């Protein structure tokens, strides 16, 4: 795609004047926008729990191949301007032009292109790739670039704090500024002296854990103050800090408090009204462990905790015992994670400018203090050829263009603080990465946890980073190396050789991964040669980020380095609604494995019904592993995730955002093994999450397998629901009715903030048996409602119940009732349930039924079986037919909830605070499929 003016291999690097850009995706004389079909869509996003509209913008313009989900997320998240005003963006063209033209203008101003024609080609190529979802910049680019806001392009920040009160207060301030913008930050607190050391005044120091309280409260306040998403932060402490044990157990102790408060009747769910009284809940905690410490763990030796002021050992602890405490705390509450300090700094390109001491909140960006990193991720499925091969040469050209654009962004970017701006401009850290590796592996017939799958993933990652550094070396010849390069030249070259040597060690298993590895070898060799002459433009090139929102924007099936969540997914439809479909990687994988069309059809139909491939007709057992997912009937073992991380880590400049999920039955020893193997396998960072370990997790799984007998003992406490009584004065309504000639009255009382809370039924004369039974029945229903039993549950149980009196009613919406209770609960559904829930129960008003008849009804002839399996843009009538055919899926509102229906238990994932749907894992964060909100910083 690109070449260097005046030659690439000649010694005169300093005379190079710019890049020549070649066309790969575009055609000269044809604009990318003219090659696609555009259509108008209405975006209306609702909270499924109460039916309220969260966002609405009608008449937006998108290509016809963009999914409804991607359309909704881009429109609601990234379009700028007040909704309903002429300045509001309404087309994807406007969004892409706003960003791309800013990049091109800056590239021209700073001498990146050899000729004006090259800048035009660059603009067209970048536009085509974004338009066709080949890659995406991180969210801050879409939020800010080309607007009147500060041109912040980075999502990841690392701060610094020293052992002074001025520095600690400045830490609070800087974190607050970053949180205000919707980003996250991490820092290492190890410079702050411990609570076991003296102040210069003679008093005892507070210690870093005490100062964490203030920062945690600040993050919680800004989060609840209406930022674009909750604050994300990482707090790191070195393992040799004297307060490390207090730090390790901090969140575990708070988890014990949460359990006690919950059992006392307080609302301790994530986002609950009482959770704010608990401390340290707004940060991820990680311990920085050294090789010295890990050897002490191996040998059961002593390890010294050192003074922050003198560096002397002030206390010795048993290494294995401290490691057990770390694992115990992680087992109890998922914190702390580990960061392997010596491994991180062994791959550091700039050690002369300072050590790497911390990471961003999601643990993929690791570099100097007071720095930032802007990210972009490639959609790997866009490089999978029809023959099942990975298109390595096209991938190389895409990486070249993306890295060039990312480096240009630093030329015009704004930053939240001056120290961050200075460091970033001096070292120009970039973070190219990818999404959809899980889908790619499955589509090519590779199991995620297999030698072949790891070889292909390693080769692609090596090719990406090798190409990125080669382009960085070429850019150094055009616009100069990064300012800090001269001081760190020897170390930078050493790290490049380490990457190249790791690439040579990749063991390939097939033609596809072999071809990719050979391309990577070429790129590393060429990049090392050019870099030796020119230096490099960027101190860092690649990370593997969660790709939450941008993954949905690119219609990726899998995020970051993750495997597929499940084999069935939730697809939004044109005109509203959604449907269950089998992931399109499944039929592609079956064809790659050699199955015929008839076999593929039968297997896909089985997966659609069961959610897994076990006992699927005609599927050979040796192929089961190809379809293993993160959750479900055949879930990937925790060590399978660790081995995949280890396979790609040598080819990443930074690290990998990923949490290793463990079953509820996992023991503390299992956690120890994962953390120990992470160190042995050369990971830079590792975090675990044990299913159902946290109380403050809405709808967390409580039905998992029982813990092993040798697991750490834990007090078993029965959950007791809390009754929410109605206030003395509350809104109500009374409905008179007649069923089969019997007259009665239904009185319904509501909570002031909406929601049915009580009913009274008058039927028969006072003092009669019927009146007494109905009065007792209404009382029991009222108490159940106040204890949180959903109204739709009662409706589903009592509608269509048959007994006398029954027959005609005087209600125009419900002309016939099979019993008094059938009428009462269907009437309550019409009055108190939103349309989507009533649609699931088959309860409509007279006007709604008329509208359905006018629209064409629900005839079974309209069911499109092919559409169930493959449709991305199904018609609304198709959606209704599918829901009628598969009623068991109608209570799901995301892929995670759909998976819960197949599993028969809830999954550990938070509810989206914007739209109420259950989020899905994305790296070490979570992303909402409904609205694109994330819990992290990318």
UniProtKB/TrEMBL annotation:
Residues 727-831 form the TSCPD domain. Pfam families: Ribonuc_red_2_N, Ribonuc_red_lgC, TSCPD. Its EC number is 1.17.4.1. Residues 872-894 are annotated as: Disordered. Residues 43-133 form the Ribonucleotide reductase class II vitamin B12-dependent N-terminal domain. Keywords: Cobalamin, Cobalt, Disulfide bond, DNA synthesis, Nucleotide-binding, Oxidoreductase. Gene3D superfamilies: 3.20.70.20. InterPro entries: RdRp_reductase_class-2, RNR_2_N, RNR_lg_C, RNR_NrdJ/NrdZ, TSCPD_dom. Its cofactor is adenosylcob(III)alamin. GO terms for molecular function: cobalamin binding; cobalt ion binding; nucleotide binding; ribonucleoside-diphosphate reductase activity, thioredoxin disulfide as acceptor. Residues 154-689 form the Ribonucleotide reductase large subunit C-terminal domain. It catalyses: a 2'-deoxyribonucleoside 5'-diphosphate + [thioredoxin]-disulfide + H2O = a ribonucleoside 5'-diphosphate + [thioredoxin]-dithiol. GO terms for biological process: DNA biosynthetic process. Residues 875-886 have a biased composition (Basic and acidic residues). NCBIfam families: NrdJ_Z, PRK06556.1. Belongs to the ribonucleoside diphosphate reductase class-2 family. Catalyzes the reduction of ribonucleotides to deoxyribonucleotides. May function to provide a pool of deoxyribonucleotide precursors for DNA repair during oxygen limitation and/or for immediate growth after restoration of oxygen. This is Vitamin B12-dependent ribonucleotide reductase.
